[in-house]
Design goal:
Distance between the termini: 36 Å
Radius of gyration: 14 Å
Shape: globular
Strand content: over 45%
Helix content: under 10%
Oligomer: single chain
Structural class: mainly beta
């Protein structure tokens, strides 16, 4: 049994005057008996804006749900209700865009991919999944 949580593989500053960062969040496959933990995706306590999220579930044979928490502290999967849940169908890529002014938040952003949108869900997909998040810094 292992603890599984996502990793940040890139934070790419953008020259666009609106959106300033693309953050790529990747979660490795979760095996039976592993403990899924939310990963810190974006750090900070200033006001920020979320403009879009692209989820890549092309290697997953089940639907996946990206759960996001806008929180100062690490949420507990299964007990902390997510602030946002975005679904991607199995073997697909999906793009979510948020119209102006986007989604504004203060604090960190934590995230985890699960195989159910239910609050109690702590099961992650058995394939690598990722998300690219476009947000202000």
């Amino acid at each position: 049994m292992a603890e599984v949580f996502g990793s940040i593989t890139a934070s790419i500053p953008q020259s666009n005057a609106i959106a300033t960062d693309i953050v790529k969040f990747t979660q490795d496959p979760v095996d039976a008996g592993d403990t899924l933990i939310a990963a810190l995706i974006i750090t900070g306590s200033s006001t920020r804006t979320l403009y879009s999220v692209q989820i890549d579930a092309s290697s997953s044979n089940v639907d996946v749900y990206l759960k996001l928490w806008f929180s100062a502290s690490l949420p507990t999967l299964g007990t902390s209700g997510a602030d946002m849940i975005l679904r991607a169908s199995a073997e697909k890529k999906v793009q979510y865009s948020f119209s102006s002014p986007g989604i504004v938040w203060v604090n960190n952003v934590y995230g985890a991919f699960t195989t159910s949108a239910a609050k109690a869900s702590v099961t992650g997909p058995s394939a690598t999944v990722s998300a690219q998040i476009l947000a202000s810094a």
